[in-house]
Specification:
mainly alpha; elongated
Length: 185
C-alpha cells in the first residue's frame, strides 16, 4: 500500500512539474485532450454496450414486416439504416475537430513561450541563459503535448470510423430486400 501511495505522489509531482514547465497553455491542451477522450470513450461504449440492442431492435422491426419487397418497404429500410447511421457516427466529427485544435493550442504555447524568451532578452539581456531556457521550454513543451494529443486522437478516429462502417455494413446485410441499395457507411 505504501508503494502505491509513493507511486501516486511521484506521478503527481511529475505532472505538476510538467505543467509548470509548459506554462498555462498546457491546461488548455489537457482540457482539450480530456474532452476528446471523453467522446472517444463514449463512442466505444456505444459500439460495445448500446449498439447491439439497438441493432437487434431494428432487425426485429424489419423481420416483423410481412412486406420486404415494395417501394415503401425499401424506403422504410433506408430510413432505419440512416437513423442508425446517424447514431453510429455521432461525435466523430467532434473528435476530429478537437484533434485539429490540439496542434493549434500547441502553437499558441510556442508563441507565448517565445514571447517569454523575448521578454527575458529585453529585460535581462543575453546574459541569463537560465531564464531564456525557461521560455524555450514553455515554447516547446506545449507543442509536443498538442502533437501527442492530436496523434492519439487520429488513431482513435480511424478506429471509430472503422467501427461505424463495419457495423452499418453488417446491419444492412441483415435487412435484406429483393433489390437492396446499400447505405453509405
Amino acid at each position: 500500500m505504501e508503494s502505491f501511495e509513493f507511486f501516486l505522489a511521484d506521478i503527481t509531482f511529475q505532472v505538476t512539474n510538467f505543467m509548470i514547465l509548459g506554462g498555462d497553455v498546457l491546461l488548455l491542451i489537457a482540457a482539450a485532450i480530456f474532452i476528446m477522450w471523453g467522446f472517444i470513450v463514449e463512442r466505444a461504449l456505444f459500439f460495445y454496450v448500446r449498439y447491439p440492442g439497438k441493432a437487434r431492435r431494428i432487425r426485429n422491426l424489419w423481420a416483423a414486416r410481412s412486406d420486404h419487397h415494395s417501394w415503401q418497404a425499401h424506403k422504410i429500410r433506408l430510413a432505419l439504416l440512416n437513423a442508425m447511421r446517424q447514431q453510429t457516427r455521432a461525435y466523430i466529427n467532434t473528435v476530429k475537430t478537437v484533434v485539429a485544435i490540439c496542434p493549434l493550442l500547441g502553437l499558441l504555447g510556442t508563441v507565448t513561450g517565445m514571447i517569454a524568451v523575448f521578454d527575458v532578452m529585453a529585460s535581462a539581456g543575453m546574459g541569463n541563459p537560465r531564464l531564456m531556457a525557461d521560455g524555450v521550454a514553455k515554447a516547446t513543451v506545449p507543442t509536443m503535448a498538442g502533437m501527442v494529443g492530436a496523434l492519439s486522437g487520429v488513431f482513435a478516429i480511424y478506429w471509430l470510423e472503422w467501427q461505424a462502417k463495419r457495423r452499418m455494413e453488417h446491419l444492412a446485410d441483415h435487412l435484406v430486400t429483393e433489390h437492396s441499395d446499400e447505405v453509405p457507411a
